[in-house]
Amino acid sequence: MEITLKDRALYFKGLLLLVCRDGVILDSEKEMLMAVGRSFDYEREFVETTIRDALVNPYLRDDPPVFSNAAVAESFIRDGLRLSRADGIPDESETVWLKSVAERNGLDRERFSEILNGLTESGPDENPYSLDALNLTWA
User: Fold this and answer.
1) Which domains occur in the chain, in start order?
2) What are the pLDDT digits (tens) for 31-67?
3) What does pTM read for this prediction?
4) 45-59: buried (b, 16+ CB within 10 Å) or exposed (e) per residue?
5) What CA–CA distances, in Å, run from 101 to 14, 42, 76?
6) Which of 10, 2, 19 is nearest to 97 (CA)?
């Protein structure tokens, strides 16, 4: 699936906002964000600095991203759910925030539940590093 430049920026920023919700960015979360940054062809130093400064950046607004289409939004939500489970302890505030992303992108509660259940059914053996973002291409 192709993703626009704006959607790439929103995707990365959205994942960053998600990991900041609990006030701590774990190593597993950093690794996943670094992988997304590499996949999106971002400079390593930019990604490292952005992650390092995220919790203290007063300009980083907690607005749920609105993507150019529902397919990108669904990929983002799947990756967000994977990221929220990276430490083995899904955080309720992260799930609530991802629901707001779904709503802002025109996805109803039923579709969000389908995405959530699809990941839940894949079970704990699913590799959390198998992110949709790593398979996106851009124009």
Assistant:
1) 2-138 (1.10.3680)
2) 999 999 999 999 999 999 999 999 999 998 889 999 9
3) 0.91
4) eebeebbeebeeeee
5) 9, 23, 9
6) 19
